[in-house]
Please model this.
Amino acid sequence: MVEQNIERLEWDSLFFGYEVGKMQINNQEKLNLDFFFKQAKKFKLIYVFSESDLFISKFKLVDKKVIFHQEIKNFNSEKEIVIESFNKDFHDFDQLKELALESGVYSRFLIDKNFKNNEYNKLYSRWIENAVDKINSFDVIIESKDEKIIGFTTLNKKSAILADLGLVAVSKEYRGLGIGKKIINESIQRSKQAGFKEIQVVTQLDNKAAIQLYTSANFKIAKITNIYHFWNL
Model:
């Protein structure tokens, strides 16, 4: 059995106000559970990542994370569609934040009811604030109608060649009209213009609408990871 260390997540621990760790498990049979539980006493929450199914009673499956990926190729963007970058001097941040909170309806931080301190709202609010302030992002793309933001995505840099679609959402009353795909295509085009060769987006396997959207935009599944939460409660 392998005595595998739990990594402390400093940012999560400081942000949530309690100790958070993470562990990658590749083989349940080789995991030393006694060693794990001994280490786990130092943490309130541990994220456990595994590409295979784990059958450990105290591990709660909260997400099947899907990474979609594609190489960026030349294509003709839809010239009649005018999509803007968010500008906090002209656009309504509260509208953008409201959409950002809608974007994570399948998020493990919302689904897991052991979160008791409004962690989901705090986390997604911080993410959209950082995106607007260009912290770890290079663009926030929005589509508006009658001065209301009805869809958006954030664009992040994962590496010198890989762009990442971060938060993605379309307002409920405008879904099914092709707005999401238009914003995604614009995001791909802007990533190409910024010099990226590849682009990815992460969603949840249970989010069927997102799966359909990204598949229609020529993304392919690159990886699926099970995420479990272990709580010391």
Observations:
- The first strand starts at residue 7 and ends at 8.
- The helical segments are 10-16, 33-40, 93-103, 108-111, 119-132, 179-193, 208-216.
- The chain is about 30% helix and 30% strand.
